[in-house]
Structure formats: structure tokens, C-alpha cells
Write a structure and sequence with these properties.
alpha+beta; Ribosomal Protein S8, Chain: A, domain 1; Cyclic Phosphodiesterase, Chain: A; 2 domains; 4-stranded antiparallel sheet; 27% helix; elongated; KH_dom; Activating signal cointegrator 1 complex subunit 1; RNA-binding
Amino acid sequence: MEILRPTLININGRIYRKNAIKEEYYEEEEEDDFSYSGPASAHFEDEPCDAHKIEQTEKGFRCAIDVPSVLYKYIIGKKGETRKRLESETKTSINIPKQGVEGQIVITGAQRSAVVSAVTRVEVLMESFRRKQPFTHFLSFSLNHPHVQEGFLRFKEEVLEQCAQDHGVDPSIFQNPAKLHLTVGTMALLNEQEVTRASEVLQQCQDFIREITGGKPIPVEVSGIEYMNDDPSMVDVLYAKVHVQDGSDKLQAIADRLVETFVSSGLMVREWDRVKLHGTVMNTLFRKDPSAEEKGGLDRQNMKDREAFDARNILQNFGSFHFGSFELNSVQISQRFSTDSTGYYSSAGQLAFS
């Protein structure tokens, strides 16, 4: 079925199919080979390359691509095999900066169609391996207002008083109150240029955010808890629900539009049809790493290392717990594994609602 229904990747509005092949690659890491979803042939068809400028030179054609240095190794391949294959198949030369040096990959060739083909191959290769990078930043709504922090600490105290005997329930799995937040979407920003670009994209969201909010903060209530797996006796993450006090869908609309904008910019990969408006209050990842962050809910890669907890009594006794209300007035690009002077995540960009 993987052959009949290969993974599709959208790059700059064009759809490519991803064909996985097994090779020796970075200690048995899987290497990926890709092709454009048009007609198959021994040569790549010439096509418009809107995202990059193809320059004509005295010796042929040239194109420079901005690539984060962390991705160089995937284009080079083990012993340079990937680059050699790309150069051989597209009849081009691919010049890559030294590892760790941020710069541009320069592709040259005698024919414009050859350069376009190599650019396409490199872009699809980059996009595939970019998705394998751990996320570095995330769009967040801060929920750490003093009223909510106070309510959260009361929730923690009462849960430990009433449910500490339940399997897996202990102080280590509770969120840091200063870092209470709602994750809108995650991003792997691999160099300073990408962080700057993400900040610029956030500022471009000002018009639709102000249109939705009317230029005013959004009164929200953090109230109620929920879980997202099938068995309440074996839970890894417990969430607090977030509601707009006037019953509107303003916050949902903003979150969905933000994801749509960042996905369109190529900085974010869509994981869900709609953003789930909730904030983590208990997480078994915190047992070993208090700074841990989930990516889009349960982190399946860490499931085997996690000890779930029995949330049945917590859900029964605290299902409608009121953490607090406040006026939400901003969205920010938060840096993973960071802390600012307030105890929240360091910001790489912020946009106010009012």
C-alpha cells in the first residue's frame, strides 16, 4: 500500500511523491529518494521554478538555495553518495558550504532544465529530513496569569491530598505553573534566518487577529479537565480546557488561522484539522524531564519510557475544576527548553491582540 499510496509532500504549491529506499546511511538511518509527481522519464522535465531565481551565466545556469547547515549532511549523504547521485542524475554540480557554516547551496549546470531538476530534488530531500528534526519553537497562548497559576497550585495540592494513592500520581508529573500554556503549533526553526522569518510571518497575522478580536483582549476561562486516550486508568497527559467567556469561537478562529498561515509559509507542518484548545496540567514526560514538551499530543517515541497514571479519581473529583479567568491578549513564538525572566518560555516574536 505504501507503493500504491506514497506520501505526498507540498513544496511551494507543487505536490511531490516520496519514495523510500533502504541504503546504508548515517548508522542505518533510512535515506529517502524522491521524484516529481509528473510523468516518469530518465530526465527531469523543465518546469517553472517560481521559488528560486535561476540565473544565466557564461557557463550555463546557476541557482542558490538557502539551506540550514544542520541539513547539509542529508544532501551530502554517506561518503558523499547522495550528492554524487543527484549530480549524476541531473547533470549538475552541487556546491555545499562546510558543515556548521550557514550559507547557500549553489547548483550549476549547462542547461536550465537540469538546474531546475536538481533544485526540485534538493528541496524535496530537505523537506523530508526537516520533518525528522525535533521541534525548536512553538506558537503559544500563555495561560500563566496569576489567577490561573493560583488555581493550578490549588488543583495540584488537592489532587495530591485526595489521589496520591492512585497509581502513578505524584508531584513530579505536574506542569510548572509559570509555563502553563496552550500550544497552537510546533516548528523546527533550524537557524537564525528561519527564526527571523517566523517572527515576520507572525506580524503578518496582525490584520486577521485584530479583525477577529476587534482590537481587544479575549476574556477566557480555564476550567475543566480532560484526557485523550481510551483508558482513564492509564493516562499520560491531562489537560485543562480553555473557553472564551462570551461563548464565541474567537480563540479557535485565531488558532486555526495562525496554523493555516504558518503551514502556507512552509514553517509548520499541519498535524490536525483544527487546533485543540487545551493546556497541559499533568504529563508523565515530566517525571524524567521537567522541561519536556509534547508535540501535538502524545509523543509516541517516548511512550515506552513513560509510566502512565490512573486518572479516574482525578476526573471524577476535579472534572469541572475552575483554574481561573483572565484576559488573553497575545500570541507568541516560544522557544523550547527556555525560560525568560518571568519563568515563561523565551519569546522569539510576539503579537498583541489590542
